Predict the structure.
Amino acid sequence: MTLNNFISRLSWRQIILHSIAFWFFIHAFETFSYLTDTKLVELFRHSNEQITGKTLEKNGMSVANMSDLLIGASVAGFIGLGVAFTISLAISIKRHWLWVNSIIALLIMFIPVRFGYLHWHYLKQIFWAPGEIFNNTKIEFIINGIILLTIGLLIFFWRLSNQFIKNNRQVAA
């Protein structure tokens, strides 16, 4: 494959759409990870005071619980990125698209994930709003995770997004 042929097979549409799907997968997996310690999540959400070691002890928890939850959420985000990359790569291979597009999308998302620049704290209020109608933390996080995961899957598998990637012609304005 010549360099010109390689460059012509790069699809910025696929890279952008799959990067967005990666973003949804990362946050879906992070959302599901909060289900591992809903008691601690409840404590943080409903406490009007600063959470200290004494507050944790009073509720039968320790700093280790908090550390486990935060590390688990970070690891879950990377697992979500890995799952999304695997799906992206499988789609690229199945549709005979250049597999390097999936690797570029992975690299584009890996750096912000690694350094925490996904601006989730701004968008969390929007994407976690549907689950707030429930009065149960577990159901809330399950619903919110399912919504995020569904959006990511739609971006990967929806016919219109795949047609958009396949169609390399520029739309006239």
Notes: The chain has one domain: 15-165. The chain has a mean pLDDT of 85.
